[in-house]
Design a protein that fits this description.
mainly alpha, globular
Length: about 190
């Protein structure tokens, strides 16, 4: 499993057992943690399963320590970036709630990623994505690379392999649990 690739585990003694991306208190803790690995797990959960009611993505894209792979995931997930740049998505104002608000927040995050691209160094913290994402990255670089809004700097290098041990694992629909908690209560998930 991808989180078992790095042999030395980080110290996780101060981590909450679980995090809910819909909780204002949990999002406040995620932000103050300063940990790009935790930010990545929360961002993926929000992108795929939650409505970003705490406006986490807008905060995240402003963080210079955000991992490049997290930025790519925001852009690539559900074709968000491609649809934003090509107009291939229904305008948020024509969508019913809660989709309208979520799409408006995602559009804002995509716009900011594109605006910030030339000024960012896009650090890497050992976060990776599944192999299919690399194919999509390369395809979009070819397809949209000439668009002046396209974040070429962010897309310039291949998506790295996962090397970091993630402190939180998503057990489904943005249910984030610490590895320590899983090891104590559900060790069969780590086999």
């Amino acid at each position: 499993m991808f989180w078992k690739k790095k042999p030395a585990a980080p110290s996780t003694s101060s981590l909450p057992e679980s995090l809910d991306p819909d909780s204002a208190d949990d999002i406040a803790w995620i932000k103050q943690s300063g940990d790009p690995l935790i930010w990545h797990s929360a961002a993926l959960g929000i992108l795929l399963f939650r409505d970003d009611s705490q406006n986490f993505l807008a905060w995240l894209v402003e963080q210079e320590r955000m991992d490049r792979t997290t930025a790519l995931a925001i852009f690539l997930a559900q074709s968000n970036g491609k649809n934003r740049l090509t107009g291939g998505v229904i305008p948020p104002e024509q969508m019913p709630e809660p989709y309208r608000s979520k799409q408006a927040r995602i559009n804002h995050a995509i716009d900011r990623l594109c605006e910030l691209d030339t000024a960012r160094t896009w650090p890497e913290h050992g976060v990776g994505l599944e192999a299919g994402w690399e194919d999509e990255r390369a395809k979009l670089l070819t397809e949209l690379g000439s668009d002046p809004r396209f974040p070429r700097n962010m897309f310039a290098r291949p998506i790295p392999r996962q090397t970091a041990r993630m402190p939180y694992l998503d057990l489904g629909e943005a249910e984030l649990y610490s590895e320590d908690y899983i090891r104590q209560t559900m060790p069969y998930l780590l086999d």
